[in-house]
Amino acid sequence: MNIEDKIFNRFSPELNKLEKYGFKKKNNNFIIEKKFKDNLFKAVIQVNKNGHIKGKVIDLENNEEFLPIRIENNQGAFVGEVKAEYEIILKDIRDNCFSKSYFIYPQSNRITNLIIKKYRNKPEFLWDKFQGTGIFRNPDTQKWYLAVLDVDRGKLQKNKKGKIEVANLKLAPEKIENLLTQKHFYPAYHMNKKYRISIILDDSVSDDKIMELIEESHSYTVHK
To answer: Which strand (E) or helix (H) includes residue 174?
Structure first.
């Protein structure tokens, strides 16, 4: 996990606060530049429309990215000072422009907010061993209709890596068979593949489509 991911883990941007802070909007991205360390370095922070954060530190003497701060367990005192000041900048942006989130990725949190609005259900985090796994269940029956899990992308997409969040939900077997013929739908990770399906929450499937499927999954949890 890189520096930015560690600091912004489970935080989501409040876009209206970015421009007030000093970010400039460019091609649906919000960008800010800040000089530090006696103007020897410049931090360039970018937040895209989906809430993803990228950052880099530029050494202004040669106008190149200062990569030593990215090397773990191999940093001298000066590199450590540069990294520490960069982290202060990131934390200040986080504290002024971001809010704490239930999940890591923007779509996961948008779906969560839509569920809270529609069903009045907040996610429950039941397992210490799997702290990133949140379930949504019908309080009337205690049956869950959605689980959001953080997993390695390679579990669903071969030859790919990196942490992602997936939605696991229950659907009719024939519906699952049909969806699996389409892009962006996968056999359920770590669950019964006949009755459940996985969707990567990376905006490859629209919020509206996911909420439509969640509604069907929720229907299986109501009293008959």
So the answer is: helix 173-179
Where is pLDDT greater, at 212 or 73? 212
Helix (H, G, I), strand (E, B) or coil at 136: strand
**Does residue 59 register a pLDDT over 80?**
yes
Domain layout of the chain by residue ranges: 3-100, 106-219
CA dist list (Å): 76 to 6, 55, 64, 72, 171: 21, 21, 19, 11, 54
Whether the CB-CB separation of 99 and 14 falls below 8 Å is answered with yes
pLDDT the model gives residue 74? 66
Structure tokens at 160: 């790919």
Q: Report how many helices (DSSP H) and strands (DSSP E) the chain contains, helices first.
A: 6, 12
Q: What is the CATH number of domain 106-219?
A: 3.90.1150.30
* Whether the Cβ atoms of residue 214 and residue 115 lie closer than 8 Å to each other: yes
Residue 188 sits at φ, ψ, to 5 deg, of: -55, 130
